[in-house]
Fold these 3 entries.
Entry 1:
Amino acid sequence: MGAVRAKVILLGHTPNPELIVATAGRRCYSPLGTEALIEKVRDGDPASFIAKLVQMGHVTPIEHATFTFAVEGVSRSLLAQITRHRIASFSVQSQRYVGEEARKNADGVFDYVVPPTIAALGAEAVREFDRQMREIQRFYDYWVAKLGGGRETFEDARFVLPNAAATKFVVTMNARELWHFFTLRMCNRAQWEIRELAEQMLYLVKRVAPTLFTNAGPACVRGPCPEGKLSCGRSEEMRTKYGRRVED
C-alpha cells in the first residue's frame, strides 16, 4: 500500500458505560443493597450524577468503564509515544513474526506514514520520500535473504526499518486514563500524529458515552492553558472546535 493514514475502530466497550459509572459512584454514598441501588440509578439521572462526580474531582468511578480500539496506519514513532501511557493494555503487530518483504506488499513497499511537513513541500518531495522508503525496502529484503530467508530472519532484518514504518495495534484504556490521554495528546503542542489519533478516539467514545467525555480534550477546553510561556495561544480556537463537535 505504501503511504497510509491513521484508521481507528472502536472494537468494544463496557456495556452501558454511563450506567456502570453512575452505579459505582452511587455505591460510595449509599447504604442500599445492590438491586435497590441499581434501580435508583436507573430511575434517576445518571448523566447529571456523572457530571457532579467529575466536577467534584471524584473520578475513580469512571475507571470502571473501558474502551478498546483497533488502530492501523500509524507509525512506529507513534507507537513509542502511546505505550508510555502505562494504564493501558496493548497488543501490537510484531515485526518479529510479520515480515515486510516487498513480495508481500501489493505496492512493493512496506506501509509507511508521510509527515505532513514533507507532504506540504509538494508532489516532488513526496516522491523522494517514497523513493527513500523503497530503498529501505531493498535493504530489508537484502538482509532477509542474507540471513536465510525464513521467518526467523525478520527479527534482525527489521533493524533497518524506519520510524515511518506503519504498525497496527489494539489498545484498551479506562475512561479516566482516556481523559488523561486526551488532555496530553490533543494539546496543540503534542506531536501531530498522536494528536490526530487522540482526536479520532475522542469522537468515537463520545458517540457511546457523551456524558463521560463532556469537555474531554486538551486542558484549555476546560480552563486556562497549563503550558505557560509555551502556550500555542489558540485556547479560544480549541474551545470552539471541540465545543462544536460536542453539539454535532
Entry 2:
Amino acid sequence: MLQVCPNGARTKADDDGIPVTSGELAVAVRNAVAAGARDAHLHPRDDAGAETLEPGPVTRAVTAVRAAAPGIPVGVTTAAWAEPDPHRRAALVRSWPVPPDHASVNWHEEGAELVAQALLERGVGIEAGIFSGTDAAERFLAWPQADRVLRVLAEVVDTDPESATATARDLLHRLRPATRPVLLHGEEGGAWPVLRLARELGLDTRIGLEDTLLLPDGSPAPGNADLVRAALEIGR
C-alpha cells in the first residue's frame, strides 16, 4: 500500500504546491489517488494556515478529501506541535464530529497513550508513529494495547541518504516484537532510499510533499501525484 502525505508541516513558503485549504487537499489527494495512492495522511489547517486539531478544520479536511476520493482511507495527524497539551489533544479527538479513518500518534511525545486511548474510544485507527533516534519503539511496545493499532508508522528522521537505510534497518529491528503491519518511510534526503528499502522488503510506505519536495533524480516535484507515480516505478 502506498500512502500519500500531501502537506505535513510545510507551508507555501516551502513550495507553492503545498495544499493548505481543505479544497486544495481534496484536489491533491484526488490526483494522487489517480496516480496510484491508496491512503491519505493529512495535516488540517485553520483559516490562518496553522496546523490544528480543532473539530471544524479537521471535519472540513476529512469531508472534502472523502468526497474527492471516495473509498480511500483518510487519516490526520495528532502531533504535539499542533496542540502541545496532551490532555487537550485527547479532548479534541473526542470532540471531532466527523472522525477520520485513522490518525497518527507520535509515541515519543508526552501523553501519546492518552491520545491513543481517545482514538480507540472513537473507533479511529491508530498509526503508531515511531521515530528513529528516540525511545518511541520501547515505549510503544510496552503499551498494553499495542496490538490494537492499525499499523506501526516507522518514521526514519535520518535525512542523510548515505545512512538513512541503515537507520531504517535498525528501527525495524527494534520493532520486531510488534504484531501490527509496518509502514516504513523517510524524509528529505532519506525519503527515496528508505522508500526503496520498503519496496524491497514488501512493506507499506508513503510519499508526498510532506516528506520530500524532490523526485528521485533530484529535480523539484511538480506535485504529490508526480511523487506517487515515481514511487510506484521503484521496484517494478
Entry 3:
Amino acid sequence: MTVDAAARRGAQVLIFDADDTLWENNVVFERVIDDFLGWLDHPTLDRTEIRAILDDIERANAVAHGYGSKVFLRSLADCLERLRERPATDVERQEIDRLALALVEHRVELMPGVAEALDELAGRHELLLLTKGEREEQQRKLDACGLLHHFRAAHIVAEKKVDTYRWLIGEHGFDPAGAWMIGNSPKSDILPARAAGLNAVFIPNENTWVLEHDELDPTDAGILRLAEFRDLLRHF
C-alpha cells in the first residue's frame, strides 16, 4: 500500500524512532558508564562530577564524530585522559574495551507491547521508521529486531534535524499535517518534527540519553504524550 493509498483510506502516516522507542538502547550504555565510573575510582571527584565531564566530552564528540559505540568508546578514553592528564595506556584502552563488551554483545530487546502494537497499527496505517546513528550499527539492530516487515521504508540518518523531516516528507510525498513522529527524544524526535509541520507522539523513556533531553511546550496541541508504546492503539 502506498502513502497515497493510505491517505485515500483515511489512514495516517506514522513515523517511528527506533532506539529507546522500539527497543532498549541507552540503558546498556548507562550500565557501561556505571562500571567505568567505578573503575576510575578518582581520588577527588565524585561520580556526579565525573559524569558531568563525560557528558561534555560526549556532546563535543557527537558533533564532531556522530553517534554509536565507537564514538562512545572514544569518549570514555577522552574522559580518562582528561582526568589523568596523560594519554591512555594500552592496558587502560583494553580495559575500556572490556567494560564496553556489553555494547557489542547486546541483543535487541523490544519494549513491552511493541511487536503486538505494530502488528495492529500496520494493518490500518502507513508505517515508516527513522533512526539516527552509525549506519552499520543501526542496520545490525534493524536486521535483528524482527519488525522491518511492518514498515514501508526504514531510513538511517546521521542526525534528526528539521531538514531531515522535510526531506522525509518530500521523499514519501505525504501531508505532514496528517502524519505523526513517534519517539522518546524531545531533541531529535519531537521538536524538529513539530518544526517541520508534523504532529508528534512523545513516549518518555527513563533511560533516555541526557543529550537527547529538551523542554517541550505543555500547551502544544500537536504533541500527544503517552505513558507506554501500547497506548498508541487507543489513539491510532
